[in-house]
Amino acid sequence: MTDPDHDLELDLARLRPRPPAPAVGAALARELAAPPARRGVVLAWSAGLAAAASLALGLFLARPAGSEESPSYRLVRAEQSPANVEVLRPIRLEDGSFARPVRVRWDNTTQWEDPRTRTRFINYRPNETLALLPLETY
Amino acid sequence: MSAAPAEQDWRAWFAEHGARLRLIARQWTRSEADADDVVQEAFVRFWKHQRHLPGDPNALVVTSIRRAALDLLRRTDRRGVREQAAAAEADTVAWFEPEADPRLQALAQSLPLLPPEQCEVVVLKVWGGLTFDQVGEQLEISPNTAASRWRYAMEALRKLITARAHD
Hints:
The complex is a heterodimer. By secondary structure, chain A is of the alpha+beta class. Chain A is built from three helices and five strands, in the order H-H-H-E-E-E-E-E. In chain A, strand 4 (98-114) and strand 5 (119-135) form a beta hairpin. Chain B is an all-alpha fold. Classes of the chains: A alpha+beta, B mainly alpha.
């Protein structure tokens, strides 16, 4: 025995709603073609640049020494501290929407050591970024 | 409705779901043009700010559409009543594509004739893919009320398509 409501629901699901006007797709393409949100991107760029700088410095310092007196540093440690996330009070943006500022802080520490002299070269790099998380209000 | 992965192209997602989103918007708006505007506004908000959020993307996008539709209704309520009536009268475009099956065609023509509170439950359940619990949350009614409206709607639709069959 079939459920008449279920049969009717199946028939309803077979109906094909009319699609949005083509102008909607064009408008969406304009709206969504904008650059992606900066949050996350800022973090990625900062981390990427720090890593690239560390690598370049490491390669530079790891070159063969020109004389016996020149130090020969080798990379011995590269650390990134846990991120400290600070959620701030919501603010109102120029377009009337609300967003919550979030401040993220973390440190990168890279150490090179000359095994002959036991001296260390330490690069300490504090990082801070501020991102906005959009808030929905109803 | 499938999930909206963070890296998925919006065009593919919209091509798959745009028509259903528009129907959801259509039953909360006065005209075809208003429905398109609502879909555009709601989809941009959903895609930019909400698709990464946890939870059912169906419910999120429906919430976005409902909010945009209510905002539009508030704005257009400021226009003259005469202007609104003329716009509604002139807007006779069907909600669905034409169907060869007479029963489906009758169903397509009958749905907009339901009382609005029943119609929205049917649209959210069938094309929004929501459960009665989720429909209740969207409409701020209890799940039992949503289920009750669904049953009334099914009964009314059966009567309407039967009447059309005898015309």
